[in-house]
Amino acid sequence: MKVPFSWLKELVDIDITAEELEEKLFSCGFEVEERVDLSAGIDKVVVGVITSIEKQEGTHLSKCVVDCGDYGHEIHITTGASNIFVGAHVPAALDGSTLPGGIHIKKRMMQGFESNGMLCSGEELGLNDDLYPGSDVYGLLILPEDTVPGADICPVVGLDDSIFDISITANRPDCQSILGIAREVAAVLNKPLHMPATDYTTVCEPDAPISVTVEAPDLCPRYMAHYVRNIRMGESPRWMKRHLALCGLRSISNVVDITNHTLLEIGQPMHAFDLDKVAGRCVDVRRARPGEKIVTLDEKEFTLNENNLVICDAEKPVALAGVMGGANSGMDEHTTSLLFECATFARDSVRKTSRSLGQSSDSSARYEKGVDFSSPQLGLARALHLIQQLDCGDITTLEFDCTDGRSTDRKVITTTPEKICDVLGIRVPDEVMIDILTRLSFTVDVENGQWKVSVPLYREDVEGYPDLAEEVIREYGYDHIVPTFLKTAAVTNGGLNDEQKRTLKVKRLLAGQGFYEASTLAFYSTAELDMLHIPADDAARKAIRILNPISENLSIMRTMLAPSMLNVIVDNLKKGNAAGRLAEIAPVYLPKELPLTERPHERQTLCMGVFGPGEDFFTVKGALEALAASLGLSFTYERETETAWLHPGIAASVWCKGKRLGVFGKLSNEINAELKIAKDEKENQNIYLAELDYEALSGCVEGELHYQPISPYPVVKRDLALVCDEAVTCGEIEDTIRKASPLVTDVSLFDIYRGKNLGEGKKSMAFSLVLADPHGEMDAEQVERTVKKILGNLKYKLNIEIR
Length: 803
Known about the structure:
By secondary structure, the chain is of the alpha+beta class. The chain has 20 helices and 38 strands.
């Protein structure tokens, strides 16, 4: 929110600089995101008086002699402006001066004459008519005749000012106005607050009856309106134009400016209905009927429903409550009678309407944060005062105040100074706390050691003594707080637990295998499950539906990671990234039953995605083998044909200690074709996916891994070429070999051969074995016994022969 320093000075007697005030605001809990100095970039620009003018023949230029006071009484400056005259007071940028935008002015020759500066327009100083009259004139800015030659231009034209851009937190809607910030400034500086004038006099009776009703008091707790006749549209005074301009608004007309000024100053959004356009001269606040339409002031048409709060006349909606008025009831140059509106609308109602219709305004931004119950009365009184001050209408005696019946008495909190200090953890003197609360417009009555604190009506965020403690400490100073331990606290070494260390180790291992870590959203839609051809009766379909999703594409909690990983891969391929390796460890959300009766199980899952022309099935298998080795485990693999989203001939399930951990393999050709990401429709992208139950994997790890010394005895290597049926898998053979003898320390496949000489349905698989005895050196007889036992087991269990 933009807050001009000069406007604050009108409400508080500020005796410190803008820089010092910025620090004060920070100290009491208000973040000043930026402080804009209006004079920044302007240097050595002064008031000059033109004492003589000589036209340069054959050009549009004029040679001027300018009196700049102490800077020189006869400074020669050439200008091309046409509105110059002898005696004109104008801004003069002297030799060596700077203007906004980093423009440097130096003396130079112009048409054979030396010019020692430049005479400036309002635009060149960063001004407009609302900031200073005459700034929009094409030509020089003409200053008042009483300005002193040589005086700095900034104070003369009001550029000796600063604008604070303050971030207002959601719990302080009372500060989304100049008055709200002024209250805080008055408190922190211990200065009196000069409230804006709100007095006015009714001068006439209404000329015709008006009706105001509220049918939805739950969405509109308070609705105030006042009738003003004989509207006289005109120009706003200079001070009001400047106020609006400093906050980023342009002046429109006196009546319109009053509503905008009240919004900025008091924080109360206002709207004015042209009663000549309000059918039946009646106003009704109600929920919209399905299908009703409205065209707002910005000429956008919206179709409404019963969730939208509208303000209607006898025939139609004339405003979106809290968002924007309708084009069919707005003011124009022919307006003669107005009904001024000030209200409190439910913040959630305004927010939902604004977002669902995609329509926002300054009013909706304030209503979404909250407008307190007492604000409409103050805002309406201030607007009527300005109507009378600017003499732009006759205030009638007709006023409406429709409320939901709630009390307007101040809230009283009963507490003790000890309770407040216990929250802070330090002892603040009672008299200091009472002084702080009083400066913040609270009242404190002390009775028998108890405090009865009366809360200002605009501080709806203060509900109990912890809130009072916050008010005290932000004014007393957070630097007074002494760091202490909680009573139940204890010093720990900190760091990561075993599970966190294991997860970090896995991530580092995968990074070493060339994988980048992916991070996907925890929700997607049933379309993602359809994309992977997940069967209707699959457990993955048992997903938790979100009650109020951001969009239908993010409507269910994920039950598996593969759909999200595939979407990331597809997105990369479409953007020209032809190859990559991705991995993610994240939870999936598995409900015990639907609808939910208890929290779902958040099961940690590992998903891997590999794509690109150089990748294959063994890329993923190799990464899994490295993962198993790093955790001191051994994986076995079985052919997988039941997973709908994997190629039935290039897929495997992963097992460890009798537990099925998950699956991996190539993406189904059918799904690959449906993605339409290949350049040639007859070809498919090379995509491989893996999804493992990481929680089950962690359960297979037995404690921490320990260093195992290398055996001092030599190992023995043997190669075996084995003939087996086509149906026999590599995993089955490896598992049989390992179980045959504890002396087998490593088994690896290095060749597969198929030929007519082997017979129908046969293949040859060559394995390299490493044998080692940790207790001594193996002799030839021991090696032969071990190999013979291995071959016997292979023959007995898998019907495998040595080739």
